[in-house]
Amino acid sequence: INESYPMGILLTVIATIAGxxxxxxxxxxxxxxxxxxxxxxxxxxxxxxxxxxxxxxxFASVTEDFSKISTNQYSNELSKSGLYSLFAAFRxxxxxxxxxxxxxxxxxSLANLKNHVTTSxxxxxxxxxxxxxxxxxxxxxxxxxxxxxxxSLSGKFLESLGGEKGLTPNLDTLAQKSMLFRNFYATGTRTxxxxxAITLSTPPTPGSSIVKRPDNHNMYxxxxxxxxxxxETKFIYGGYGYFDNMNEFFSNNGFDIVDRAKFNDEExxxxxxxxxxxxxxxNKTIKEADSSYRAHKPFMSxxxxxxxxxxxxxxxxxxxxxxxxxxxxxxxxxxFAIGDFLKKAKEKPWFKNTIFVIVADHCAVSAGKVDLPLxxxxxxxxxxxxxILKPQNIDKVSSQxxxxxxxxxxxxxxxxxxxxxxxxxxxxxxxxxxxxxYQKLGLYKENKLSILSVGRxxxxxxxxxxxxxxxEYKDVSTDMSVKDExxxxxxxxxxxxKKRLDRYEx
Length: 506
Fold this sequence. Notes:
By secondary structure, the chain is an alpha/beta fold. The protein contains 15 helices and 20 strands. The mean pLDDT is 92.
């Protein structure tokens, strides 16, 4: 923490305030009676233990479901206090969609959702959810997949997306040799939200990411699909994966864990409080790929970087911006590390049979003049496989939830799907992006942004001007078709999750 924030100043301020409070407490003898108490320790211990156990037992056993005493929503709301709802939401990291957001009938929302996730090669398996078979003709491929998820890599950092010049020379050069998705959007503003969207291909639901919620095991994860095809699947992270519940989520959704605890002293040459530097992380990724190759196993690696994070420290001598001087240096260092990684990977026998995906988890800054500024969600996605794919620029509006269906399309796989995303490379792909904060839920489509918010509100805007630096809007009315679609995605996803219909069954 001391690496990221001025702890000396903060602790001095806290100590000063505490000293002032203590002065007044003693001056006016507020605790004199307590100090003069003649009661014995045993007399004080029993009630103290009882008072301690009450909140512990309540936290462990009471959930928001206790308040659902009736099928009448008004009765349910009267049965619980604001504090009850507040702490239930805090514990579960979620907001109940039906309570706070605009709703359609469950039947209509599911029908609209199915209408927007279906494809020409999909066959739905039942009427209760979106489970379907994706059928592709021809031979399936077993290309390796290395997914590098870059911390806070805004679109504005890449010249190839119309951003700043000189910050990402390796990625900009790579973009010319790759599939570059130039109208691509993150679903949220936190790392765990990006992880959720990529691995589960699911829209953001109100509250925190599923990664941080309890009861997130055996979700319908891409990890299980890769494993069913014979792949070794690994979550490779330079930090300690207990942070933000990452290890718990990935280990129970089809991935083996390779976090900082698995790095030996030689592999950890430089680190910050967030984790090892990106060079060390990507060198470890190569070692893990080598191991899978020696075992004659195709592999899928989900790699999460950390260097582009406060305090922006990285090894000296790599780039022309000194360490610990700000975000731009960290961005350029991560770009250097990725370039170095690909240079080393080219020397490996598995390189020619590997698809490399480079995508951001979210943008560096999320605040803007409006609730959901598009430029603060505009991120790069690059798919690089020089022996497999031809370079091209793809301008379709698309989302992190579309990554895995697109990869599975490149692999020409037939598989069972509960995903909400679709293959971007399909000629019939329906352009749209889903973006969010903790409470705001947005749909960007056909140059309009519609936003659901608590209080059962919906607001729509026409996008007048938009690039990686700014967005200009004007208010417009909400079309019925847009309302149906946004409720289909968000109400539908929330309902299926609540009913546990987004789980994996082997």
